[in-house]
């Protein structure tokens, strides 16, 4: 099966992504996950969990502010408290928040609760959008009693539903809010696991959004390949990628790792203003959001030419990627995948913690690191079973034997019943050389050559081949 991609607009002549279905299926999955837990409710301050639960968004500026919060009572509909006039906007535009969701959509969830807790009558489950504000990460002074107000608002919703004596799961929380909730007698426990369980399997519309998001990065890499040459800076490449994505309708360019030359090994995970030079390796990771759905998508290039050491590193990096993708299918565990990858000591690190996220995999959805997680550090102790409908990124890394270059590749895959479907399409099966092609007096200049010019003599190449056996 191939994940289709559509235009970014709705049309009357073609079945495309269905946002109503997206919201309903996400909330149904969250209700089911809550039903199968021992919790009476879940409370979220996390931007992505709020969006998953309520289908609301007020701009990426709010992602790290901890100002919004929403609660989902067992068997009920979400109640959202939002920032100032955003709540009024929701009341006018996000009418699904006021629907009696449980009466028409949560039969499976309520049946699950009957086994655990007993059903909640539909007439007591109305949700909605309301005005509310937390502490702005502590910037509002304690005397204003915002933490106590948040706790009181949540408590009142739970009291209406008879859930104040049941555990309430919270994903992330400011400490004053936690203390205020405990002061009211609420039993606060970890609720992130309920959200992660709900988000683990993607709905068809989520897969469609993730595929479209990846297609936008395909275009960014096309522009980057044409742009990359000696004399440009890493930060210019970041700007080019950001413009391409925003022009195509990106909601948020979360980050662009632009790493070149000797900065490739070890991987610093942040771009700089370094000037790209002839013969440099350069790898990029593009992370952005389309309707909330992220990408994490590495590609490696050589600029002008690639050294034999860089070509070799790329081949090894690609081999580890390919064997991992070939092994992906329902029923396989994350431990089965990571055992195919090298140990940290095999590529120059002291242990798996020191090499964490270089040979790595992670779910992709409304955030870039969801379940399942693939790592030799954790997956043997906490393996996860792959299931149809999961979407995750696999990323591999290999340092070049010259001591300064490296290769980095990442592919996003959907787990299908017969194996993996790759949704990141920009060519990566071989190392691409970007930049101008040079012509010597007798012939085009070889694109596999060392940037140390004296090493490109026939004598040196023969000696190196004899030494390495290549």
Structural topology:
Blueprint: H1 19-35, E1 41-44, H2 47-54, E2 69-73, E3 79-82, H3 85-93, H4 101-105, H5 107-116, E4 128-131, H6 146-160, E5 168-170, H7 175-183, E6 188-190, H8 192-199, H9 204-227, H10 234-247, E7 252-260, E8 281-290, E9 293-294, E10 297-303, H11 308-327, H12 334-338, E11 360-363, E12 370-374, E13 391-399, E14 406-416, E15 419-422, E16 432-434, H13 458-468
Parallel strand pairs: 1-5, 3-4, 5-6, 10-16
Antiparallel strand pairs: 1-2, 2-3, 7-8, 8-9, 8-10, 11-12, 11-13, 13-14, 14-15
Helix pairs in contact: 1-5, 1-8, 6-7, 9-10
How would you sum up this structure, described in words?
The longest helix has 24 residues, at 204-227. α1 (19-35) packs parallel to α5 (107-116). The chain has 470 residues and is of the alpha+beta class. Mean pLDDT is 92; it is low at 100-125. α7 links the parallel β5 (168-170) and β6. It has 2 domains: 19-199, Creatine Amidinohydrolase, Chain A, domain 1 (3-Layer(aba) Sandwich); 204-434, Alpha-Beta Complex (Creatine Amidinohydrolase). It has 13 helices and 16 strands. Helices cover 33% and strands 19% of the residues.
C-alpha end-to-end distance: 40 Å
**Amount of helix:** 25-40%
What is the CA-atom radius of gyration, in angstroms? Answer: 25 Å
CATH superfamily of the largest domain: Creatinase/methionine aminopeptidase superfamily
Quickly give the CATH architecture of the largest domain: Alpha-Beta Complex
**Mean of residue pLDDT values:** 92
What CATH calls the topology of the largest domain is Creatine Amidinohydrolase
For the report, how would you describe the main beta sheet?
A: 6 strands, mixed
Number of strands: 16
Globally, the shape reads elongated
Q: Which stretches are poorly predicted, pLDDT < 50 over at least 5 residues? A: 100-125
Could you say which structural class the secondary elements and strand pairing correspond to? alpha+beta
Helix segment tally? 13
User: Which strand order spans the largest sheet, edge to edge or round the barrel?
Assistant: 4-3-2-1-5-6
CATH class of the largest domain: Alpha Beta
Please, how many domains?
A: 2
Q: Could you give the order of the helices and strands? A: HEHEEHHHEHEHEHHHEEEEHHEEEEEEH
Query: Which strand-content bin applies to the residues?
Result: 15-25%
